[in-house]
Amino acid sequence: MTRTSFMTRKELIGFLILAAVIFVLLPAVLDSFRLNLFGKYLTYAFVAVGLALCWGAGGILSLGQGVFFGLGGYCMAMFLKLEASTPENTSIQSTPGIPDFMDWNQLTELPVWWQPFYSLPLALLAVVAVPVAFAFIIGFAMFTRRVGGVYFAIITQAFAAILTILIIGQQGYTGGVNGITDLRTLLGWDIRTDEAKTTLYFVNGVLLFAVLLIAQYVRKSKLGRLLIAMRDQEDRVRFSGYNVANFKIFIFCLGAAFAGIGGAMFTLQVGFMSPTLVGIVPSIEMVIFCAVGGRLSILGAVYGALLVNWAKTSFSEAFPELWLLGLGGLFIAVVMFFPNGLAGLWSEKIEPQLEGLFRKSKPVEPAESAAPSSRAAAE
């Protein structure tokens, strides 16, 4: 059996180009406000990369990735809210020392399940562990019963709706429809300043590349090859003796972990977390990010998240009432004309043209004439 290299030359160049875009080009050409917007876009790229593994490699279409994005975001928001809710900052409340929305809803003490979030290490652990735990429960319940395809997609969408309703209904514990807002500091560091937003943008970029390297390792490993085999011929893989359900559960949980990290970084970058980022609509938008970029490419998923969110912002600024139509039109156009997304457009159309131009422009060294050599030999 031949071993697959971790990264080909073309893939390395792709990683370097993306690094140049994120760490050099965008900071050089954008002001602090726009750079903060792209920092928010990068948080969605975490979800898109996870979807590229689940959907692109494993054939698992999840329409509920907003659940894991929101859970990670809420875990981080809970820590930040507790840090902002010191007795001194909340002295005007009926019950100082608890978040303001709890006081408004006449709670007199902090719920027990909030108390671990006084600790940053526990909060960071929860950012990954809570989405993974939810993903494991869903995956184990579905995949061990061989539920897949459109049925699995609908079930994950239902979970997104259920969690949204639960968060809104438990206003005294979650902030309700407003979410958790007025987040100020991280261990005393003011996250609301332009300098902090810029720093968080670069932290986003570094974490995103760590996630990309993990995803690249999975794609090139035996697990990655098995995922592709399961996507194309699941029954054949099962008859070969592999436990297909376990592999699906693992990759689904990995995608949830990526989404949870993205949600936590969104909370830090933007300064709030609300149920509008958990439900059905944001979950479908996250699938659009992956589809536009190319669900078979982890780098394409990142570009898709950046492009779609930039287009969404541009459409909403120029045409406030029509931006949803524009976003939908972009998705339809990509699906109809470029089914493999931006990555497919590059590999199938643009890259061959560039290689052809490169070969034509490369000078051909003239071959030495054979006749003089023959004469020289005769002499």
TrEMBL record:
InterPro entries: ABC_transp_permease (IPR001851), ABC_transptr_urea_perm_UrtC (IPR017778), LivM-like (IPR043428). It is found in: Cell membrane. Its main location: membrane. One of its GO terms (cellular component) is plasma membrane. The chain crosses the membrane at residues 12-30, 42-64, 117-143, 150-169, 199-218, 239-266, 286-310, 322-346. It is a multi-pass membrane protein. This is Urea ABC transporter permease subunit UrtC. It comes from Tateyamaria omphalii.
